[in-house]
């Protein structure tokens, strides 16, 4: 069933069009984004099962909610886990209409001041992008008609008259011609802003290894993103690689992404978010307490820092006290000066040690060690929950008994 026969209206084009970003602030370092839609904690019923969107929007602790996910683009389709049970199929398409989401998006924006994004991709996205740039541009135009302002009554409208505040890209595998798709969305949003005054966001969620394999084409100066939330989990460069109290960070690479923001990004004012798992089961490398506080404080020392992203809503609501701790950590002062130490052992075993103090916007020196001639390097066994394999990994690969190196992604395996 098409949108017109399902909803039966034409005249309320601007019903859910706030005049600016609902919650995101490009000048803030305390933005907090939490994904909703996948019910990844896995409860089918009860208080810890994924609730309707407006339930979470009433929480004042976060201001950005990406809806996960729009899982196909050629013939668009959505997956919101158990929230999809409240929707009805739209005849002639792979989409469904969600009266509850139509109401909740408007409520979240106008009543609770949230930025609501539609996230594209997810782990189940398999289209691989587009065969040509023309196909990408055409698909973006169609997505805009479906989820942007009401401009075409012949297309299905899953959210009815509600209009999202922008789009997020979360690709877990390489995609083709996605830059033309993203730029077409950006052009359409810019044109709409000139007419209605409503502004839109364009964001991405790359993995922390740089450059990101999936999003590299878009991130390499091709698309003007407003923000990126880097996934510092399920990867060797994740939170678990952060060394508390150390002036030099080796694998944890927020500094690399800050450098990207300043020297590569098409938008020099792009904000970089620290992406973290919201619970022990939400992603490998989960950290909390004083360790996470130290990581947030360190990351806030970089001028591109814009806040924290958490995966995902169901996980963080099942993790009592975690969300409040993150909010508290975001409110603490940043690490304003970072000391970098370079240690090198030469072949003659002469040790050279130099120390310097650098600003957070400077890429930190990586500690390197070369063993003396004739010596045999020793690699200690890897303890439980630490990394043991993954693309680019140069550390230990043998787990301490009884743990086994368990594959989690191409970038990250850990001892479990």
Can you give keywords for this protein?
TIM Barrel; alpha/beta; 9-stranded mixed β-sheet; Glyco_hydro18_cat; 2 domains; disordered N terminus; 20% strand; 3-stranded antiparallel β-sheet; 416 residues; CBD
What would you say this structure looks like, in words?
This protein has 416 residues and is an alpha/beta fold. The protein has 2 domains: 3-330, Alpha-Beta Barrel (TIM Barrel), CATH 3.20.20.80; 380-416. Helix content is 23%, strand content 20%. The protein has 10 helices and 16 strands. It has helices at 3-7, 53-57, 99-110, 133-147, 178-196, 216-219, 254-263, 289-300, 313-317, 322-330; strands spanning 31-34, 64-72, 77-78, 88-89, 96-97, 115-122, 166-171, 201-204, 227-231, 271-277, 305-311, 338-345, 351-358, 387-389, 405-409, 412-415. β4 (88-89) and β5 (96-97) form a beta hairpin. The longest helix has 19 residues, at 178-196. It is globular. The termini are far apart. Mean pLDDT is 85; it is low at 1-21 and 337-378. Pfam families: CBM_1, Glyco_hydro_18. One of its GO terms (cellular component) is extracellular region.
């Amino acid at each position: 069933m098409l949108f017109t026969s399902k909803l039966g209206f034409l005249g309320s084009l601007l019903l859910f069009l706030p005049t600016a970003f609902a919650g995101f602030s490009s000048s803030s370092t305390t933005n907090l984004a939490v994904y909703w839609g996948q019910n990844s904690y896995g409860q089918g019923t009860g208080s810890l099962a994924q609730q309707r969107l407006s339930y979470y929007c009433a929480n004042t602790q976060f201001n950005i909610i990406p809806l996960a996910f729009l899982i196909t683009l050629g013939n668009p389709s959505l997956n919101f886990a158990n929230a999809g049970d409240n929707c009805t199929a739209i005849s002639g398409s792979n989409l469904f209409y969600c009266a509850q989401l139509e109401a909740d998006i408007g409520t979240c924006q106008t009543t609770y001041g949230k930025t609501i994004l539609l996230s594209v991709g997810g782990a189940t996205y398999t289209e691989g992008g587009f065969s040509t740039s023309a196909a990408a541009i055409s698909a973006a135009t169609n997505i805009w008609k479906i989820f942007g302002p009401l401009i075409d009554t012949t297309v299905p409208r899953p959210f009815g008259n509600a209009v999202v505040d922008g789009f997020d890209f979360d690709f877990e595998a390489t995609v083709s011609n996605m830059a033309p798709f993203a730029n077409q969305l950006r052009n359409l949003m810019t044109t709409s802003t000139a007419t209605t005054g409503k502004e839109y966001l364009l964001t991405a969620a790359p993995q922390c290894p740089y450059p990101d394999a999936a999003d590299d084409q878009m991130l390499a100066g091709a698309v003007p993103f407003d923000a990126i939330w880097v996934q510092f989990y399920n990867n060797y460069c994740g939170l678990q690689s952060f060394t508390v109290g150390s002036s030099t960070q080796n694998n944890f690479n927020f500094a690399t992404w800050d450098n990207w923001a300043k020297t590569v990004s098409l938008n020099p004012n792009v904000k970089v978010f620290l992406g973290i798992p919201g619970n022990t089961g939400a992603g490998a490398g989960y950290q909390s307490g004083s360790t996470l506080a130290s990581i947030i404080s360190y990351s806030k020392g970089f001028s591109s820092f814009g806040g924290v992203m958490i995966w995902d809503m169901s996980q963080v609501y099942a993790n009592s006290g975690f969300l409040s701790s993150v909010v508290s950590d975001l409110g603490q002062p940043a690490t304003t000066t970072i000391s970098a130490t370079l240690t090198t052992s030469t072949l003659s075993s002469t040790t050279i040690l130099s120390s310097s103090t650098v600003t957070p916007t400077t890429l930190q020196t990586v500690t390197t060690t070369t063993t003396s001639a004739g010596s045999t390097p020793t690699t200690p066994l890897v303890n439980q929950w630490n990394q043991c394999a993954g693309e680019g990994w140069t550390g230990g690969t043998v787990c301490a008994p009884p743990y086994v190196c368990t594959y989690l992604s191409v970038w990250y395996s850990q001892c479990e």
